[in-house]
Specification:
The complex is a heterodimer of chains A (289) and B (141). Chain A has 3 helices and 12 strands. Chain A is mainly β. In chain A, β10 and β11 form a beta hairpin. Classes of the chains: A mainly beta (289), B mainly alpha (141).
């Protein structure tokens, strides 16, 4: 634990002025894509604070986000979870792709999203909630043997109005391993930076480095049982802090709005942007990018 | 350091600057803002002191491709922002280009930057001037 803290603090101290104004959302996607050739390394956790009959858990995940082009961003996730009084398990991986449909900015900017998931039922990072949400009660030994091969699609609609970002995501997922029908979910998010003018000096605690917002997300059942009953829903304030020009810290306490949820979901995320990643790799292999 | 030494260092620096910039930059003729966008005025035009904040934003968001001096980088095929062809654009046109990007040429949209900060970047871009003698004449289209 001490060594993790040391590494984390070193990363913070090593930050130099290099432009991360990352979206503060954990669940809702906006139309802002990764910069081409840059790689975002993100370490996040979803921490479930239990209600009676549930166990506390930490579900960490690593995300590698790469800007393939100015309109196409690809991401790989590796995830796990550790449940109090139970065990720690690797829960699988996901590969997602987002494509910005229109080349220019409009009132509403659509983005298409396609993701393949190879997970087991113990997955608890809750990057999105479809159908009724994850099983938060059964032990890992029962959940891990059940594998899900899932294809997920999303329609992301996002608008920048003055300094506000307003985004709506509508998702559907088909699990090819089980007959659950097609599951549905939603996420809405609103955010705004605390200050809209940049000061002349480099500073870490200036208001311009903070973005505040809120998300509302949950499941909408499936084709077999459509609706909001027996589904999970959360309301989550979010805050992001640009620690430096290429790193961002995010925090979100989510509050469960239904009995199928954890009462509180605490999310933390740290993102580090590697600028010119493609160029560096090309150089490594002696090629021109 | 002797005068010859200082001269050599300065020459090497100027030569490096020449190679770093993008002398082959050609504007994309199809990347034209709509008339309404071109005529927008910079709401910060009366506050030139805010260009300093624009410089900070430029270094964070733009320097990776355009270079710290805005002269463009050949390896990135990015625009030399010091060129008259860029400087003659209206504030509104520059704002539109920062906001929308040009996916065809690999420039992302920077609409994630708050609106007033994008105008600050425009203020800063206006201060970019070519170093005398470094820009080949062919660039001045």
């Amino acid at each position: 634990m001490k060594s993790i803290l040391t590494v984390f603090l070193s990363l913070l101290l090593l930050q130099v002025s290099a432009g991360a104004q990352e979206s503060p959302f954990f669940i809702t996607y906006t139309h802002h894509m990764g910069e081409p050739g840059n790689l975002d390394l993100e370490v996040s956790t979803t921490n479930g604070i239990p209600r009676s009959g549930q166990n506390a858990y930490i579900a960490p995940y690593v995300e590698l986000e790469y800007g393939v082009t100015a309109r196409w961003t690809s991401e790989l996730y590796l995830e796990g979870q550790s449940t109090s009084g139970d065990s720690s398990v690797f829960t699988g991986w996901r590969w997602e792709n987002r494509y910005k449909v229109l080349g220019r900015e409009h009132w509403i900017n659509p983005v298409l999203y396609l993701e393949y998931e190879n997970l087991n039922e113990a997955s608890r990072i809750q990057k999105e909630i479809e159908g009724g949400g994850p099983d938060l009660v059964s032990p890992n030994a029962l959940l891990t043997p059940t594998h899900d091969h899932e294809l997920e699609g999303k329609l992301i609609l996002s608008s920048d109005y003055r300094d506000w970002n307003i985004s709506e995501n509508f998702s559907l997922a088909k699990n090819f391993s089980q007959s659950e029908g097609v599951e549905f979910g939603y996420a809405f998010g609103v955010s705004r930076p605390l200050a809209t003018l940049a000061s002349a000096h480099d500073c870490r605690l200036c208001r311009e480095n903070f973005v505040l917002g809120a998300e509302l997300y949950g499941g909408l059942g499936s084709t077999l049982d459509f609706g909001v009953h027996n589904t999970a829903h959360y309301f989550a304030p979010v805050i992001s802090w640009a620690l430096s020009d290429n790193s961002t810290l995010r925090l979100s306490p989510g509050f469960g709005l239904a009995h199928e949820t954890n009462p509180v979901l605490l999310r933390f995320g740290y993102t580090y942007e590697v600028q010119g990643f493609a160029e560096r790799v090309a150089k490594l292999f002696g090629r021109r990018p | 350091m002797s005068k010859i030494g200082v001269g050599s260092v300065l020459t090497a620096f100027l030569a490096a600057s020449c190679f770093a910039q993008n002398p082959h930059y050609q504007p994309d003729p199809e990347w034209r803002p709509p008339t309404q966008a071109q005529t927008r005025e910079n709401p910060l035009a009366a506050r030139p002191e805010l260009a300093a904040g624009g410089r900070k934003l430029f270094v964070r968001n733009c320097a990776e491709c355009h270079g710290r001096d805005g002269a463009g980088l050949e390896k990135k095929h990015s625009a030399d922002l010091q060129l008259p062809v860029v400087q003659q654009e209206s504030d509104g046109a520059l704002f539109w280009k920062i906001t929308n990007g040009n996916a065809k040429r690999g420039m992302p949209s920077f609409s994630k930057i708050p609106e007033l900060q994008r105008w600050q970047i425009v203020l800063y871009v206006r201060t970019l001037e070519p170093s005398p003698g470094l820009v080949p004449k062919a660039n001045h289209q």
